[in-house]
Amino acid sequence: MSYYMRFIVRTMCILPLLFVLLDVPMTVKAQDTRDYLSRRDRTNGRNTVSAFSEITHNAGLSVVEILSDDEVLCLGTVWNDQGIIVTKASEWTEKATIRLQDGSEVEPELQSIDGRLDLAVLQISPDGLKPIQWAESSESELGDWVAAFGEDIRTWVGVISAIPRKIKKIGGAMGVVLDSIPGRSDRVILNKIYKGSAAETAGLLEGDVILSINGKIIDSETKLVEMVKGFDPGSSLDIKIERGEKAMSIDLVLGYRAIFDFTDRNMNMSDQASRRRSGFPKVIQHHIPLKYNVMGGPLLNLKGEAIGINIARVDRVTTYALPLEIIREALEKALKAETAD
After folding, report:
1. Considering the domain boundaries, does residue 23 fall inside one?
2. Global model pTM greater than 0.90
3. What gap in Å lies between CA 138 and CA 323, rounded to an integer?
4. Among 255, 290, 320, which residue terminates a domain?
5. C-alpha–C-alpha distance, residues 255 and 245, integer Å
6. Mean pLDDT rounded to a whole number for the chain
């Protein structure tokens, strides 16, 4: 047998063994003929969004951007032909301006803030404004298609992902890690202070001992946590501390519990979420992947009518919108109160 023939025979004998050792199939599978969606045909692909453009075009003309130092803080929705605009209150700042559809910027007048709903009511000249068209009802079902606006007032689409419901309130946060003094379980010490937290802003330091909050003695970590959770973000607390051998008072304004987002695995996989994302009487939940700084814009049904206002980006798959009925009731009260004044 020639050299080449011996080589071929040996190869034929070795190949089956290699297939077994490497766990490679001995037979060729039939070609996978399943169809896969191209990027253009996915939920927010070019083709899908284009199919919604006709119903979202007019609504987009009723959306404005709210800026501070050329940075978009949130969106605003033109409520009526009187120049009333609604937006997300916790992203609003007194130095903000409104950028209109033609690119011009105007300074709004703050009419009212509804802390319960996290809504701010602003007013500007109605010239050139187009009010949003509201649906008769916010009623929707799981899986219904909805649309909203993101950065540059670009259309995004998704579906209703949960039954409308109340969202429980989560209180404010100091932004600290607590510990007990060895041998003194009734003494609560600040073990760590997170950067950018309410505690850091107030001037608290690691090693400070918390004696009381608003006159109530703090004798355990649990008591401090429960007490702080009972106050909303923005609440002012009078905190008595002991620093070394010196006792002193600190005024602290509570922040949002979003300061702890980096400790949550799901939030670490998410884009930045809204600071205020709890404590709503009722929300419409959808899965449009909007950024936190485009809350305040309308949520639309398939007729291009607004069924609510986007109010909170919660995580990578969850956005909340306030139903139009709740918004309408709150605005009617606010505008009546303004007229009475």
Report:
1. no
2. no
3. 6
4. 255
5. 28
6. 87
